[in-house]
Amino acid sequence: MKIGINGVGIAGPTLAYWLREYGHEPVLFENADRLRTEGYVVDFWGLGYNVAERMGIIGDLRAKATEQERLSFVDRHGKEIAHLDTGKVREQWNGRFVTVPRGAICQAVFDACGEVRAEFGVHIAGIEERADGVEAVLSDSRTERFDAIVGADGLHSAIRELVFGPSSQFEHFLDAYVAAYRGSDYPHVNPGWYVAHSIENRWAARIQRFDGVTVILLVFRAGLLDHEPRHDEVKAALRQVYDGMGWEVPEMLGYLDEGPLYFDRVSQIRMPAWSKGHVTLVGDAAACPSLLAGEGTGLAMTEAYVLAGELHAAGGDVALAFRRHEEKLSAFVAGEQKGALIFRSFFAPSSRLGVAARNLITRLAALPGSRRSSLGAQSHPSRSRIIGLAPRPLGNLVGGLPATARLSTGREACYFSHRSPCCSL
Ligand SMILES: Cc1cc2nc3c(=O)[nH]c(=O)nc-3n(C[C@H](O)[C@H](O)[C@H](O)COP(=O)(O)OP(=O)(O)OC[C@H]3O[C@@H](n4cnc5c(N)ncnc54)[C@H](O)[C@@H]3O)c2cc1C
Fold first, then answer.
1. What is the pLDDT of residues 357-399, one digit of tens each?
2. Cα–ligand 1 centroid distance for 80 (angstroms)
3. Architecture in CATH for domain 2-68+97-171+268-345
4. CA-CA distances (angstroms) from residue 72 to 98, 270, 280, 361, 414?
């Protein structure tokens, strides 16, 4: 089968890799003129980790990992008021857990694709259904026939818009904005620590990447602004929202001009169906869980892996493959999305009481002997659920591949996403 894939992020090349493994012909299209590899660190574990392991890329990821040891909440003077021992997460997962730039995952997955045809600076701009497949109209006016087209083009998917209509039907704004940017020579460093200062409605944090670059993350409630800032208004809006906040926040704001700035709505995508005709969606395009879920990368890889297997197993019956893919994953992913909403209060509680409660829970979680002290998937306020697939074999999702995996959620980090109106990465 010849499959056109729009988007070379995480899901797209993962799908291409597995389709090629099964003997099919994937073709990747990416509207950026190069692979977008800059990125914030994400925690990467669970099912996605297992898929990555099978692709032989875990060594690459480990080489770019940060050994994250501590999540530290500080007050406006920089004094620690609560912390969690994040190093214990890795122990709980027997080391099958990395904190790594999203871009490193993107690069490793893409490299694994080898000779797969990939076109950068070109995207699928039009789709015409045919009885025996689908015709893509490319952005450079060429047309190309495929057996199926997959939208792997992220939260603001163009394929979704083309096939299902306006995103406003499916995008659920979670009433918060996120910004991320870097400070190359940021003066305050706590290696392996994720340090955060959070007051009502606002969160500011930093973590140092493996290469010494500090990444700054700001998350805040939308109600602090009277309208969503346009591209040219973002920096001023951030300065306004974070004005007067203590700790290192004034210094952090000083780095806004240093380089690329990611800014976006915190949203989920919830769709009644992921496919129509010969077109389907995967990853954030189909079911973005938002940064609140903290497992979007792993989910994107899992969805791509399962989709490739189903396309292969269906022997050319694309509709059957799409149906099976969705049957296997959609309820599970919807559960992930629902659970993620709990973490909105973790980032930006809307009241002082909420902030105090969050900090208290964090302190309790860190107490020696606390059942929560391991910060494991069952215990951390931001990683508090083990999801229903555990410990189901991946082979249950796609026939014939032996492995066991657990999928869990919860992560407060972010990365430089590339699908943002004001992102030049
Ligand atoms: C702030 C933040 C923090 C996060 N933290 C974590 C975390 O800790 N752990 C975790 O697992 N996940 C995390 N995630 C989520 C995770 O990064 C995403 O879920 C994951 O990247 C989704 O992969 P994807 O391939 O579906 O989409 P993306 O990674 O967004 O890739 C989409 C690709 O499509 C391209 N594209 C866009 N439009 C078009 C078009 N019209 N034509 C062609 N190409 C196009 C883009 O340039 C991009 O290359 C976080 C996300 C955010 C925003």
1. 877 777 776 665 554 333 333 333 333 232 223 223 333 333 2
2. 32
3. 3-Layer(bba) Sandwich (3.50)
4. 19, 33, 41, 13, 16
